């Protein structure tokens, strides 16, 4: 399953549709402006909130939190001891860890679980400017969660770049 994400998605206060390969609207990313912390909601086509994404307050290092139905689903932060700047760890509530690595700012990276590829994020397949694809490789993977992970790591990487 491949989804097309507009790169401007990370603008706080902006709303953008994520489409499937056929151009059908699948998810709406609702950027919440005027909040104390960076906040996004991933909604279905009926406006129901599937995923809530926000920056964790008072964390020693930047952390994004993904929630579903008010319950924490995952926390994302840059990998602590990584020599690679573009390496993030996603810790799911059950203790499972996903690894995100690659060229985050270039929109060329992968999400893996225990060495198994779950999703590939890339601009290579697309001719649409300012768009990247999220290709969910495993059929049993949660597309909304993987899209939320992509949004989070890109947001964290851009924020870190802007602080340098």
From TrEMBL:
SUPFAM superfamilies: Tubby C-terminal domain-like. Transmembrane segments: none annotated. It comes from the Bacteria. InterPro entries: LOR (IPR007612), LOR_sf (IPR038595), Tubby-like_C (IPR025659). Belongs to the LOR family. This is LURP-one-related family protein.
